[in-house]
Design goal:
Elements: H1 2-6, H2 8-32, H3 47-65, E1 69-70, E2 73-74, H4 87-93, H5 107-122, H6 125-142, H7 151-159, H8 173-182, H9 186-195, H10 212-232
Antiparallel strand pairs: 1-2
Helix pairs in contact: 2-3, 3-4, 3-5, 5-10
Length: 236
C-alpha cells in the first residue's frame, strides 16, 4: 500500500510480477503434488478433480502468456503478466490433456486453446522465433544437452525483444541474480532439473529435434477430436 503511494509504477510492476509468478507456481504445485507426498499422505483432491484443477490453472497461464497477441498481432502495450516467449512450452504442457479417453477439457477450454494456437501461428516470425528459442532450450535441457541455454542466457535473449517489465516465464531479475551463484553453467541447470520430482513431464514423448509447429499440429488434432466428442455427447 505504501509503495503504491510513493511509487505507483513500481507497485504496478511488482503486482504484475507476483501475479504471473503465483499463477505459474499454482499450476506446477498441483501438477507435482502427488509425486512429492510423504508415505501415508494423500492429495487434497481426487485424481480426476486434481487433473481438472491443473487444466484450469494451465489455461489461465496460457491465456496470460498469449494476451499480448490479439488476432495474430503482437501488442506489447497489453502488458501480459507472463512473457509470450514461454507460450510454446506452455502449450507443450497442454499435450497431456488433449485427446484423452475421458475429456479433461471443456468445450470452451478447447476453443480457448484453439484461439491461442491460431494467434501464435499467425503472429510475426520474430515473435514466433523467440517462442521457439525458449521451446528448443526446454527440450534440450530435458534431453540432457549441455549446450542448452542457461536461465541467464534466455533472459538476455528475451530482453533484446522488449524492455517491458512483465513477468518472464523462465525467470526474472531475482532468478538471474540467483543463477549467478548457483547455476553459472547450463550443465548445472540440467543437473538441477534431473533431480526434481514431477507429476508428469510432457517432454518425455517429444523428440530432440521437434519443432514448435509439431506441437501445434498435435494439439490441433487432439483438440479437434475433443471438440467432436463434446458435440457427439451434446456437451455444449
Amino acid at each position: 500500500m505504501q509503495l503504491a503511494t510513493f511509487d505507483p509504477e513500481a507497485a504496478v510492476m511488482l503486482h504484475n510480477n507476483l501475479t504471473g509468478y503465483a499463477t505459474l507456481r499454482k499450476f506446477y504445485e498441483l501438477r507435482d503434488e502427488a509425486a512429492n507426498l510423504e508415505k501415508g499422505q494423500k492429495t487434497a483432491l481426487e485424481p480426476m478433480a486434481r487433473k481438472r484443477a491443473v487444466t484450469t490453472e494451465l489455461l489461465a497461464v496460457i491465456s496470460s502468456a498469449a494476451d499480448n497477441i490479439y488476432g495474430g498481432l503482437y501488442d506489447e502495450s497489453r502488458k501480459a503478466v507472463i512473457r509470450v516467449e514461454g507460450l510454446l512450452s506452455l502449450l507443450g504442457e497442454a499435450l497431456v490433456f488433449v485427446n484423452q479417453p475421458m475429456s479433461l477439457l471443456s468445450l470452451p477450454q478447447c476453443f480457448s486453446l484453439l484461439k491461442v494456437i491460431e494467434d501464435l501461428e499467425t503472429v510475426s516470425g520474430r515473435v514466433f522465433d523467440r517462442c521457439e528459442e525458449c521451446f528448443h532450450s526446454t527440450i534440450a535441457a530435458h534431453q540432457g544437452d549441455e549446450l542448452a541455454a542457461s536461465p541467464r542466457q534466455l533472459l538476455k535473449a528475451m530482453s533484446s525483444m522488449t524492455s517491458a517489465s512483465s513477468f518472464s516465464l523462465v525467470g526474472s531479475s531475482l532468478l538471474e541474480s540467483k543463477t549467478s551463484d548457483t547455476m553459472d553453467s547450463s550443465h548445472a541447470l540440467v543437473k538441477s532439473q534431473q533431480q526434481e520430482t514431477r507429476g508428469w513431464d510432457w517432454r518425455e514423448g517429444v523428440a530432440r529435434d521437434a519443432k514448435g509447429e509439431d506441437v501445434l499440429r498435435i494439439l490441433r488434432l487432439g483438440l479437434a477430436k475433443d471438440v467432436a466428442r463434446h458435440w457427439i455427447d451434446n456437451d455444449y
